Amino acid sequence: MADEPLVLGIETSCDETGVGIVRGHTLLADAIASSVDEHARFGGVVPEVASRAHLEAMVPTIQRALKEAGVAASDLDGIAVTAGPGLAGALLVGTSAAKAYAYALGKPLYGVNHLASHICVDQLEHGALPEPTMALLVSGGHSSLLLAPDITSDVRPLGSTIDDAAGEAFDKVARVLNLGFPGGPVIDRMAREGDPEAIAFPRGLTGSRDPKYDFSFSGLKTAVARWIEAKRAAGEEVPVADVSASFQEAVVDVLTRKAVRACKDHGVDHLMIGGGVAANSRLRAMAERRCEDAGITLRVPRPKLCTDNGAMVAALGAEMVARNRPHSAWELSADSSLPVTEPHVPAPGHEHRHGVPHSHHGHGHSHDHVHEVSKDNLYS
Ligand code: KG4
Ligand code: ZN
Fold it and tell me: Which end of the chain has fewer CB atoms at under 10 Å, N or C?
């Protein structure tokens, strides 16, 4: 609809320069420039290399997105940018660019949270997020279970990894198997030829006394590495497909089990899965089956929207505009450890936590009533 907010979003928290343009829940452009090939030989993202690549890619990627969307920069209702969490230098390139464009164009600036963006992107695929939303966020840097009564103002962590992130485990296991970087997509592919039950790898933090919603993947990674070492020491060939499938099964089993449990415990009848690891085919299949068995509706965006991109930032920015949230100040700074509980960074003086008075705005499609009802349900 033409009266929905038209927002450009800039994402530079890691190695992807992403620029997306959305109108409300409609994706108009999703331009990406990745420096992943420049990091591959180091087996992980090198922050300085990423920052420089963002700087070089920024203006051309913005121009490409505007062209793809067929809109003029002057028509935008706002510019959104990832303010954190992420690599400090990389974030700085994005926030500086966003400020420059917003200032030059006279548009409001919205510094938003990378994790909340990974959740909000699903509005581009499946429409308005239910409130509250239960989200399993699995990426190279994070693995969390989040309950979001309102993605623009209220995101609550239920649990997270106590050591490695799920994607990090994929990357480390891939390195031990000499499969290259990033590891997730290769392991996903290799696993298709393997037997997920060939090797019984450990399921971290699944004992009856373990924290219900936290994850641990470091022990699993070590178990896989030891298993491979033993094979090599015995002069035997490492069955890469079986190791990949069995490792992947262990990760996916724990992620889906805990996510479904969180939904049941909190009386939430749908689950959103986001972040790079949500592109994993086995995770999608197992989540689909387990959610169906539990009467839970699963929402997973298409793989391209799961990995880092600018559209997700634009999606959250558009929601900020639609709900008339305060914009950010020109002093907005990149915060490498921005807490997940802060979906955006409003100008100082604006209380952005609960109880914000939401005035109705031209773009308004306020869900405040629904929001209040669901919040009550949560606490009762
Ligand atoms: O969200 P993302 O693009 O960047 C971060 O914010 O971290 O996630 C990247 C991570 C990497 O660890 C990568 O190995 C993993 O997501 N990943 C996958 C798959 N595609 C990407 N992991 C498992 N299966 C995949 N198909
Ligand atoms: Zn991410």
Answer: C
